[in-house]
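Fill-in record for DUF1214 domain-containing protein.
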Amino acid sequence: MLTKPFAEAIQEAEKIITTAPHVHDDRDLAEGYDYLAGSIRASVQMAWAYQKEFPYFVRSTGPHTKMGLDNPDTLYFHAWLRDDAEYLVTGVRGSTVDLSFQILDGDYSPIAVPGSLAAFDDREIVTEPDGSFRIWLGPGLKGAGMLVVREVFSDWAAERPGMLRIQRADRIGAAPPPPTLDELTKRYGVAGKILISRLRTFLAFAERFYLHLPVNTLTAPRSTPGGLTTQFSSVGHYDLDDDQAMIVTVPASDAPYQGIQLGSMWYVSLDYVNHQTSLTRDQARIDPDGMIRYVISERDPGVANWLERTGHRRGYVQLRWQRLSRELTAADGPAVDIVAVDDLPKRLPFHTPVGPVAWRERIAARQAACAARMLG
C-alpha cells in the first residue's frame, strides 16, 4: 500500500505524544493530539513542497500547523534549494517592520540546529519606489538546502504583508513532469520522516535550551540559537499556581521589533488569536518610566499587559528583539518577580484597571488582525 509508511509514521508519532514527559492529564493529552493533527497536516505540505527544480514558498507554520515556539507576530515561509542552481526571488515589500532572509544548510534535528550560511534583511536589497525587489541566489553557496523568510509585524492592525515568489532561473517558463507512482511513494515516505523528526526535534530543542534553566527566571538577551544575526532573545519557563503572577519588567526598546509570547509544553505558541498570549511593543502599554510591565497569570489581573496562561500551569516564555543595530546586554533585558495576584496593585506603580468590556474589545481586535493576515 503506497501510504503504508506514512500511516506507520502516524502510529509512531502518536506514541511520541502519549509518552511525552509533561503529559499528566487528559487536557495535556488532548492538546498533544491537536498538535499532532497540525503536525500531520504540515508534514504532508512540506513533503509535497520539496521541489528544488520548481520551488515555491510554503507557509512554514501558522495557527493550525504550529512548531518550534512559533512567533505570533511572524509570517514564516520556506523553499528548498540546490547549492548548484541559481534562483530568483521577487516580491513586493509590505509595511511590516522586518523582512529577513536566511539560507540554511539543512533542517533542525533532535541533536543539531542547522547552520546559517547567509542571513540578511531588506535593508541590504534594492527596493524600487513601488516596493518591488529582485534577489538572485546561487549558484555556489555550498551546502545550501533551504531559504527561510520571516516577515514580522509590530502593529497587527496597521501593517500589511508583502508578496514573495521564488523561481529556479533555468526553469522559468518550463513545467514540471506529471507525478509518478514512484515519486508519490517517496513523498509519502518523506512526509512520515518529517512528521517523526518534527515531533522529536522540538521536544528535544525545548529540553536543551529551556528546561535546564531555573524555573520562573528569564535569561539575559542573547543571540537566538538558529536564528538571525539581527535577532536576540530572552527565554525561560514558568510554573505558577492560579493565585500567583509573574511580573516581567523590561525596557521599551528602540529596536524596530520587540515582543513577548507564551508557549505550551509542546513548545508551540498558545492561542494568540482568541487570547492575549503575546504582545508587541506597539500592542503593550508602556509605563511613564519607559518600562513595559507584563503580567503572566491565570486569573485576570485587570491590566492591559496581561498575558493569559489559558489553563497552562507550566509553559515557556520568550522575548525577542529584531532588526537590531547593536548587541543587547543584560541591562536591555527583563527582570522577573513572582507575586500573589492579589498583591499586583501594590507592585505595579502605574496600574490602570482594564475592565471586561475593554478586554473583549482587545480580543476582538486581535481576531480581526489575524483574519487580515489570513491566519484564522
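KEY FINDING: The chain has two domains: 3-207, 214-374.
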